[in-house]
Structure formats: C-alpha cells, structure tokens
Amino acid sequence: MPMTHDAPDAIIDALSIDCLIFGFQKNELDILLVQHGEGISKGKWALPGGWIKYNEGADDAAARILHDLTGVSRIYLEQLRAFGDVHRYPTKRVITIAYYALVKPEAYTLGAGFTASDVKWFKLGDVPTLPYDHSDILEAGLRHLKHKVRHEPIGFNLLPRKFTLLQLQELYEALLGQKLDKPNFRRKLMKMNLLLPCKEKQTDVSHRAASLYRFDKKTYDKLSEKGFTFEL
Amino acid sequence: MPMTHDAPDAIIDALSIDCLIFGFQKNELDILLVQHGEGISKGKWALPGGWIKYNEGADDAAARILHDLTGVSRIYLEQLRAFGDVHRYPTKRVITIAYYALVKPEAYTLGAGFTASDVKWFKLGDVPTLPYDHSDILEAGLRHLKHKVRHEPIGFNLLPRKFTLLQLQELYEALLGQKLDKPNFRRKLMKMNLLLPCKEKQTDVSHRAASLYRFDKKTYDKLSEKGFTFEL
DNA sequence: ACAAAAGTGTTCATCCTACACCCATGC
DNA sequence: GCATGGGTGTAGGATGAACACTTTTGT
C-alpha cells in the first residue's frame, strides 16, 4: 500500500540518497566515507546515505543527512544525478539520488553522534573498494567536479575563508590534475576582481608571508548577471 | 507492502520520469509536448512522462517512454537530474527523474499509437503554461543544453545527418541566442576536423549550393581520448 | 648566506574578431 | 544584373604560455 500524508515521517520506498562529501587537505582532495554498522556490507566503507521522508524535499533530505553526519549546515550541496540501474543494489530495487558537497576545513567537525571509527576522510588515492555502485557515483562526481570547477567559482568552498593565492593554485592543480604556472595563474585570478584582499598576511611561515584573500561572492553575483562567466 | 521481484512489471511508487524532447526546425528550437487525456490536468499540455518498472533501469524506462511516443530508438538521451520538491505534484508525493533527448528531423515520425492531437511540437516561444513543475524542468533543461552544447558536440543530434555549415551555424545561433560571424564560425569548425565532407551539394536552392557534411563521431572519440575538447 | 615562496615583467606565438572581398547560381 | 548565400583573405588586437627576474622573511 503506498504511503501518503497519513504517515509524513515515513520514508519513500525504493528511493535513497547518497552523498559525495569532498574536502581538501594537504594539497589532496579527500572524500568522507562511513562504515556500515550492520546489514549485508557490515564493516565496509561506503558513501554516507539515507532515505527521503514523505514530508521533505530531496534536497532537504540530502542536507539533513549531511548535517547529521558533520554537524554543519549551510554547506555547498548540489545534486549530481540519479542512479537507477536495476541491479545497483543487491537486496531490492533502490534508485538513489546522488549529491555532492564541498566543505571547508573549518567545517571539519565530524561526527555529531558518530565515533572516529564510523566516519573517516580518505585521500582519493586511498579509497577502498566501495560497495554497490558507489565507485561509479564517485567517479561521476569527480568528473563532474573537475569540469564544473573550471566554469564556476565553486572551488572556494574547499578552502578556508581566508586563503593565499598559492593555496588556491594548489587546489586547482589537485582538482585538474596538472601543474599551473604561478605568475599566469595569479594574474588571471586577479584580473577577475573576485578576490577581496583581507589586508592580512600569513603568519608562522618560514618564508615571505603571502597576502590573504577572500572570495567576493557579491561581486561575482553582480558580474554574473551582466554576462560574466568564470573560466579556469 | 513494498513490491519486489515477485511483480517485476509493477511500477515503482512515488517515482516517475519526465522527458524533454528537443527538435530543431525553421531555425527554431522545438519541444515535444503531450496532451493529458485524463486525470486532474486533463486537456493540458505537459512533458511526456511515465513510470519506472521494477525490472528496468531508469535510463531504460526513459528510452522506452521515448520510443513509445516517437516510434524511434537510438536517440540521444541523457538524464538531466531528479526533481524532488515535496509539493511538485499535487495529489501525492512523486519525485521525478528528468531526461532530455535531442532528435533529428528524420526521426520526426510522431505518434506510434498517438494522434496529432495527443502529441505536438511547440516552438519554444509558444510553449503554453505547463502543469506541476514542468516549467522548472524545461528551464533547467534549456540552461543545461545551452551550456553543454558549447563544450560537447551534441548539437549535431538536432540536425539531419547531412547538413551545411550555415545550418550548423544557425543551430548554434538559436541555441546560444546570439549571432555568429560566418567566416570565423566556419574556420573554427573546419579546424577541428570533425566534419566529414559528403562530396555532395545542396539541391533545390536558389543560390550557390553549399557542401554537405556529416559529423565524424569516430574521429571525435579518438581525439577525445587524446585530451581534445570541443569548444564552442 | 641560503632556502623558500611572494610577487613582477617581458617576450613571443597563437588565437579571435571584424570586416572586406570574390564566387556560383537561380530568377 | 541582382539577390542570396557560399566561401576566402587579412590586419590588428587580445590572450595566454614560458620563463627570467626581483623581493621578503625565517633559519
């Protein structure tokens, strides 16, 4: 019997959510995985996921799952797409909607209700074999991210609020998988007028301190309306 | 009671599919709509859609719906994304997975099992008010298409197999919403080596006949592997 | 002094744009 | 011959890659 508004908190059958949560540390892209406590794939690391309630939107469900896991809200979160192969899930037919999130190091307050052994950051190179079609989802998410990051200024969501130009460059080098020329990268970014100088410098570095910048979202929104598009 | 393999042909509850089917005629982008024969929105034009069976993948379901409607298979078809707002559908909770298809004029054999009054092409300017969140889906699809067409050679799916450079240019002008310079457009495309000359010319035109070309998918696939990316 | 990274300048090839121009064909 | 679109040429500006160079700061 299909459930309706009579049971608003009940979950929708055959439809789940999975989240790709990306972070950036030590010049490497990381992904957050959870360890299954029970069920068929007990002990296996997998993408964090959950079910959609009848009385919440799909986006809201993804945000809820993310919040439960990290304790943080207002994180960059977008839908990737749905994965609907017949055999993607072994025990019954489940279609999943995949989301991807980009979190700043400041938000790395893991595990509201979780222990360190439940939730862990994995460097992309160290990701274990994932169950179901989670490897496909991860691969699709990475490809999507790699592409999107070049055309929209979303990469800033992976950096602390204040960052140096080198940090930004290294982020892009990691995401795009290629070295970039420092002077050229610097000039290109500066010419966009999207970096707001913090009038501060790095501290505790054993070399000349770099200026800190913030991403200027307001200006970006204004420029976007006028037809400007962020490139590379 | 959740349905399982016991009833493989049964449909999945609370999950539907909607298709944006784009065509190109008279230098205008068209979209295919169907008229609802029954139910709440009887008489209204809406996106063609359907339900997913327990024994078919989501992509397969979209292809099936598309085939039932147009009688054609092997059409360019990709998932846009899922739309999961709580209130997007009035009578009960339904999340939909939206797909978009690009069809060539040759495939305009409408209505296997439909009459002309059931299914119709609408110029984008003449699209009536759509029910549910179908306007949102259309808008999202258009935005996506506009972007994607610049970075991947999918526009060819909207043209006949053999086309002239001007047809191609006019397609892009319609999609991007701007005039393009003929000589430059021509050179840019030719330099990519993705257009295979048919060694044929137009007939029945009251001016100098243009050469016909085909899109060279094989070469494109080869170039892609080597890192080439189609741009504009 | 040296290491390490911050920043600046300059060259050169390449690409893109804008526009002028000639060609072929039907009426 | 003239309208219509097919198709080519070219000058000049903008862009971007490559790399040399100077500056600042901690050890």
Automatic annotation (TrEMBL), chains A, B:
GO molecular function: hydrolase activity
Organism whose genome encodes this protein: Dawidia soli
Domain Nudix hydrolase: 14-145
InterPro entries recorded: NUDIX_hydrolase-like_dom_sf, NUDIX_hydrolase_dom, WH-like_DNA-bd_sf, WH_DNA-bd_sf, WHD_NrtR
PROSITE patterns: NUDIX (PS51462)
Keywords from the named record: Hydrolase
Protein name according to UniProt: NUDIX hydrolase
Listed Pfam families: NUDIX (PF00293), WHD_NrtR (PF21906)
Source lineage: Bacteria, Pseudomonadati, Bacteroidota, Cytophagia, Cytophagales
Coiled coil: none
